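#struct-pred

JT: dropping the chains for the assembly here, can someone run the whole complex?
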Amino acid sequence: MFGVLKRKPLDKLMEVLGKGKVNTSLVERRLYSYDATPIPIQRALPSAVIFPESHEDVVKLVSVCYEEGIPMFPRGAGSGLTGGAVPTVEKGVVVSFERMNHFDVNVDNATAEVQPGVITAQFQEYVEKLGLFYPPDPSSFKYSTLGGNIAENAGGPRCLKYGVTREYVLGLSAVIKDGLSIKTGNPVIKDVAGYDITKLLVGSEGTLGLITSATLKLIPKPRARATVLALFDKLEDVGKAVTKIFTSGVFPSALEFMDADAIKAVEDYKPVGLPKVEALLLIEVDGSHQSVQEDIRIIEELLRPMGVEIRTAKNREEEEKLWSARKSLGPALGNLKSGKINEDIVIPRIYLSEAIPKFREVAQRYNLLMVIFGHIGDGNLHVNFLYDKANREEEERAERAVDEVFELALRYNGSITGEHGVGLTKRKFLRWQFGDAGYELLKGIKLLFDPKNLFNPGKVLED
Amino acid sequence: MFGVLKRKPLDKLMEVLGKGKVNTSLVERRLYSYDATPIPIQRALPSAVIFPESHEDVVKLVSVCYEEGIPMFPRGAGSGLTGGAVPTVEKGVVVSFERMNHFDVNVDNATAEVQPGVITAQFQEYVEKLGLFYPPDPSSFKYSTLGGNIAENAGGPRCLKYGVTREYVLGLSAVIKDGLSIKTGNPVIKDVAGYDITKLLVGSEGTLGLITSATLKLIPKPRARATVLALFDKLEDVGKAVTKIFTSGVFPSALEFMDADAIKAVEDYKPVGLPKVEALLLIEVDGSHQSVQEDIRIIEELLRPMGVEIRTAKNREEEEKLWSARKSLGPALGNLKSGKINEDIVIPRIYLSEAIPKFREVAQRYNLLMVIFGHIGDGNLHVNFLYDKANREEEERAERAVDEVFELALRYNGSITGEHGVGLTKRKFLRWQFGDAGYELLKGIKLLFDPKNLFNPGKVLED
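RK: done, full complex below.
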């Protein structure tokens, strides 16, 4: 569809942006042609890597690209897992927002203006020192950017209670087709004027335009936090426990789930003293100092009569020990096999105890090691297939197994992705999830913002 | 643009839907040609009032209307304040969802499937008995419908902490152009597959299609609630107090503001013992039994040193007394003048003490009584101009004053509407708020869902 980019358009980009913002060295082009996607995907060396420094730079960039028909592949930190930031055609340019990394917090308004290249963790640390809180916590938060988080509508454990990234984006500045600037929303929480273009751009994975700044909502930072570990002998009791907690008035800030194989993997790797059980839940609550104690007591009273073993933490050290099981999962899985496909399907949590055995059947049929963990409160399960990276045949089996997992998720009224986005790797399932009429609407929206298909072409929607 | 509807298409509607669902009596047509909008608006007698009873009925209805070019004006309870539910052309039909009033709560999944005609308060009472909570609380909640709330993206005091209606809509079924059915979202909290059509339909005021059911998110019901009343001698201290509270870790579930004129109106009407002060805040907190006490104590410690008088409630009765000031505002204003334009602009709360005197200037210039109250935490101010209904000249003055208030709101980086929607009455300001490029996107989205402009034509966007 796209050829190789000619010299002339590149010269034009250098002319309007300045040479220092357009890098055409082979090293840089190669560096910026990857992201964190674990499986082989379509990938091309871009013609250049562009480093805009302002909204005006982005306007100039998009204007030239729209005139010359140059595909643009926006990039935050490249920590995405579905190929969202990867250039797929040689004619394209990668647009890296790393130099647009300023932010400005307005404490009195509890909002912040942020550029897309701000590192999420740095922003969070800053606002927390001011007594404020920006909850979205994708596991990549230490290096991922707010721009990438917004493009992917990033989630994380805390989103059960606090909502996903979309709910914290009050407004956006963006550049769409022909270099047109749009400004959506305002630094206010309530705004019902017109259709919500802001929320439409959040999660659009860079396919509708380039976001140049965002107005984020901040909330009061909870004063205290506490965790309990609950150990289950029966998978079906997990769902019952969650219902009991939810209907008791306790709103956990995280409900992290690990299945028997995940627990085993951790204990084999670095024992933390977990017994052989079917599943565990790490239950975190936050709020005032007194309310977290009250919540923990209520959780214990609810779950102990079910025969669930509860472990509580008396201090910060013991709490970290409780979380160590969850935190050592990554290295534990890496220890088992060199390759891992970590999918992020979502199923209504009522189907959990029915669906997990079906996922296990899939793993058995494809003769694969599988480990499940995830954010049980919102039904977001990370189904991990492990394989040997050197064994292409095993890798292909894992890819086929993942397809069946997607199909199961959709059959259970769920979604193919709760956090990672569609990108390149899940495109073929999107039409199934949306139906023909819905899919045509997605294509219509894309056409409206990007009639030449130059913003991250080939992502989300199939060409 | 539209003429009167011929007999033939009406017969066709009766044929496909059944006579009992198509009412053409003059009485009914007249009854359904109004909503709660307080100012004179364009209004027409519809050709018929349609009462669909199922998604299939709506598909049939939209198919015929799309074939025959019949405008459809969807209606919940008609409690809207901007003309959203009002038919504007005689050729049109009103689509009343009052017979689609079933709902089904899934406690284990903390979600509900609801039809558009369900009364909000009835739904809320039901889920609260199950220990769950549906927070959106527009002041019309006792009679407004969930369908209307979704169409308008309804807010309310509690939305400061809990978010607006949009954040509770996980999925929708709707019928768009040509009678096409679409299903968006799923009964899960996290879903990042494709563009968010669900959130686009929420707040679209019936202009993109007809919503036939929704999947709503429910959360744990807080176990306790408490209120304090704070009395301010200086307007600028209100903003300072809100910042102090927000950065202390206390997240109020409501922060209701009343200005000096609002307080005076209440005291003149039915004295509740409020002193002459510049402003008051009703601060509500919720959570666990212990945390609400802790929160109240913190608020007192923060505000007392500022010279702010704090009144707390020791029991349920005293608490209701605190709220009585806010609750008797409506009748108090009705007592002053027969007519009231209650606008719902939003301005970032940092500009509050600067903007309120400017609003007062406007009222003085037009020689009007004005009272301001609202949800200060989210900057949503209800600016009320009072006038004599029999005095058309005074009414016109009030309408012109409102225009200036909208202009001020936009100048302060705010919005023309935080809760009531655009409808008919605020259309002319929408382009200003969105800019030309943004406004063209709105029109493009409308065209995509409704190429014949038959869903609530003339609302939100100007023809």
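JT: nice. The mean pLDDT of chain A is 94. Chain A has four domains: 7-98, 103-220, 224-330, 337-411.
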